[in-house]
Amino acid sequence: MNKELIKECILKYGSPSYIFDLDALKERVLNIKKILGKDINICYAMKANSFIIEEMKDYIDRYEVCSPGEYEICQRHSVKKDVIIVSGVNKTYESMERIMSLCNGDGIFTIESAEHYDILSKVCKEKNIHIRVVIRLTSGNQFGIDKDMFKNILLQLKDNEYLDFAGIHYYSGTQKKLKKVIKEVAMLEEFAKELQDEYGVATDILEYGPGLLFNYFEGEETPSFEEQLSELKDILKNIKSFKHITLEMGRFIASECGYYCTEVVDRKCNNGSEYAIVDGGIHQINYYGQTLGMKKPFMDVITCNDSYELQKINICGSLCTVNDVILRDVSLPQLDKGDILIFKNCGAYSITEGMALFLSRELPAVIFYNKDTGFVRVRDRIGTHLINDGQ
């Protein structure tokens, strides 16, 4: 999306705003599927950006849902129940009862603890519903369970008439190099063979989050989109223990389609240091790996003046905290009040992961774009002061 289109959007809908290029999103998903081939399914981890789930219904094989709220969003957008994997750590009896009443057992459910096993067993027995489950193997943190507990639950599943074991779920984090992916896939293949040898259990599904690298910052080098996917395909084609492989992706799918736009509302020079205050802030923009504004993300500027002279400047938001520094001591064209900063690759997490309610600032507008329909505002700017008030 070029600057002129973005300028048109901001003139129409104002700042701050998130803009999601749906044409770019579609192209990226289709390219991922083209490189990986028809034998590998793609699951969109909707926690990355829940606004765009409907735009991918014709291209994505599955959606990962990690909370009751995310399931309700899928419900409102008429996402088919059988393409949802219900994941996440805090499964309660009440939330699973609600979801079971909606899906009647369609989809896949993850087990991440003995408590999850008990809850799912109880709900399914009460409703006389049969479900498919995958057990999440831990990567050494609070998510999933270790191999011993995995085997313990697997033994219980063999005698459970309501829960059918379907496979392994594994995700160890984001922004991983392929060397780590190779080790993880080898470990999962070996563990699946172990389960087959010891318990005679076939692992039909591997639900795996590769956490591929996405380059957010200038001056950092990562393998290309095509390079990572091609090598990943080569890694996965040698797997023999799983009939079906599904790759969970959130950041890798959604990042590229998003733009965050914020307007300069004030300028000052303090003790020789230049500052631009914008109407957004760190509560609305989040890049994985950013530290106190020290790294410069890919961005653009729409200026009111014609000056091309660069100037060292600090970009700060509208929050009352010294931490609200989006960019520190970066070289940008000379900025004036009314100029627009365009931050690229904001399609994943920025819209949901920031501390959006801090200081009762407005939530940014959300705008979709494609060539056929042009710009469509799907959420206006929303005041948060009512949410932050007990009255």
What number is the mean pLDDT? Answer: 94
How large is the count of helical segments? 10
Structural class: alpha/beta
The string of secondary-structure elements, in order, is HEHEEHEHEHEHEHEHEHEEEEEEHEE
The CATH superfamily of the largest domain is identified as: Alanine racemase
Cofactor: pyridoxal 5'-phosphate
Domain Orn/DAP/Arg decarboxylase 2 N-terminal: 23-254
GO molecular function: diaminopimelate decarboxylase activity
Protein name: Putative pyridoxal-dependent decarboxylase C-sheet domain protein
Task: Write the topology of this structure.
Layout: H1 3-13, E1 17-21, H2 22-36, E2 40-45, E3 62-65, H3 68-76, E4 84-86, H4 93-103, E5 108-111, H5 114-127, E6 131-136, H6 147-158, E7 163-171, H7 178-199, E8 203-209, H8 225-236, E9 242-249, H9 251-254, E10 258-270, E11 273-278, E12 299-302, E13 310-316, E14 325-333, E15 340-344, H10 350-353, E16 365-370, E17 374-379
Parallel strand pairs: 1-16, 2-3, 2-9, 3-4, 4-5, 5-6, 6-7, 7-8, 8-9, 11-13
Antiparallel strand pairs: 1-10, 10-11, 10-15, 12-15, 13-14, 16-17
Domain Orn/DAP/Arg decarboxylase 2 N-terminal: 23-254
InterPro entries: Ala_racemase/Decarboxylase_C (IPR009006), De-COase2_N (IPR022644), PLP-binding_barrel (IPR029066)
GO molecular function, one term: diaminopimelate decarboxylase activity
Account of the protein in words:
This protein has 391 residues and is an alpha/beta fold. It folds into 2 domains: 3-16 and 256-379, Lyase, Ornithine Decarboxylase, Chain A, domain 1 (Beta Barrel), CATH 2.40.37.10; 61-249, Alpha-Beta Barrel (TIM Barrel), CATH 3.20.20.10. Helix content is 29%, strand content 28%. The protein has helices at 3-13, 22-36, 68-76, 93-103, 114-127, 147-158, 178-199, 225-236, 251-254, 350-353, and strands spanning 17-21, 40-45, 62-65, 84-86, 108-111, 131-136, 163-171, 203-209, 242-249, 258-270, 273-278, 299-302, 310-316, 325-333, 340-344, 365-370, 374-379. Strands 1, 10, 11, 12, 13, 14, 15, 16 and 17 form a 9-stranded mixed beta sheet that branches. Helix 4 packs across helix 5. The longest helix has 22 residues, at 178-199. The radius of gyration is 23 Å and the shape is elongated.
